[in-house]
């Protein structure tokens, strides 16, 4: 089954809006990558201040290929790159072992 890569972003409260805007303006940065299956930006509500960037991929190779190519373009802003909203990050890796979806009516 698929694999999940979650980028955990440490974002100060006053930078939340900036972060969300930056993601909103980068729509399309990952959708066309081979093996890409799902993306969600998860805003913390309780229990943590970290944002989770949830991504799901067909396999590890697809994710690695994205990381080595398109990911760099999706993340770089050139010389005038603004200061990141996030103060730090960490990547978590998972394998999907079980899943369910609602039954079709
Ligand atoms: C698991 C996969 C991902 C990894 C490992 C990753 C890596 C990173 C890292 C290290 C940062 C913080 C530092 C920086 O700004 O460069 C970041 C922020 C960001 N990433 Fe990603 N990313 C992933 C997925 C995505 C996806 C799918 C998108 C686009 C839809 C995206 C768009 C952004 C944006 C807009 C920021 C905000 C920069 C800021 O802090 O202002 N990332 N990512």
From TrEMBL:
User: Short name of one Pfam family for this protein?
Assistant: ABM
Boundaries of every ABM domain copy: 3-96
> Per its record, how is this protein called by name?
ABM domain-containing protein
Species source reads Streptomyces longispororuber
The taxonomic lineage of its organism, from the top, reads:
Bacteria, Bacillati, Actinomycetota, Actinomycetes, Kitasatosporales
